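Open question from group meeting: does this chain pack into something compact, or does most of it stay loose? Before anyone orders reagents, we agreed to write out a predicted structure and look at it together. Recording both the input and the output here so the notebook holds the full record.
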Amino acid sequence: MKIKYACPFWGQEHLEATAFVAKVIDAEFDGIEINLPAEGSFTNQFLKTIENIRSMNPEFVFIAQAIVSPVNNKVDEYRSSMERRLQQLVSFQPDFINAHTGKDHYSFDDNCRIIETCMNISAKSGISILHETHRGRFSFHATTLIPYLEKFPELKLVGDLSHFCVVSESLLQDQETFLQKIFPHILHLHARIGHEQSPQVSDPFAPEWKGHLKIFLDWWKEIILCNHQQGNETFTICPEFGPTPYMPAISSSEKPIAYQWKINSAMKNYLRENLTP
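Structure tokens returned:
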């Protein structure tokens, strides 16, 4: 099984689209994961650049994120806004969509209606829509995610396990049974190390986080093994350490205590050496 590494646009918003894509290729990533602006020159420039890159290298990965703003709207209004965003994203022809789906305070039935909307769009477009395990979404907690997987056995997930750790204020020592049910649904990973109080450690390669790195790496190896056993030929990973405020900053300043780009590049290189299908 081939593992491809996507670079997050998150934290690189200061760059023009062509400059960002060139930086990604120069750093030897295999693709890009991006929450594109709904409209404007950046999006147009990015799509043209990606089209050119993929005409020369069809293997280059393009993952589109679907993230709707957290406004105080009713369920049907949210579902409509999600549908509009997904319809736009499928027109861009990404490899797949990473959706931040539903809300943690919506009812089970309401979140199921939103998931069904996503599934209908995916079926009609042929573009897979994966749902990220994330705070604030329907998938915010390992335990409460299980009923959704039982209702929708075909549900595909983006695994960002750092959020489960924060929500549970633990390293999930008591949730192994639930993780084993979730792992087979994960088809894409966000490789970020979190801890009991935050979705992101300052530097995953610092000595104080050595134990956390090992726990996450063991989880990721299990997920890779699940995909290998399912016969999947390709798996994607996005090292997704974020800028401030995800990245801790020096007190009374906005200066991050570590270099986000360097960490994501180092994590990509580390996983290439330590994650084997």
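Observations to bring back to the group:
The mean pLDDT is 96.
The CA atoms of residues 108 and 147 lie 9 Å apart.
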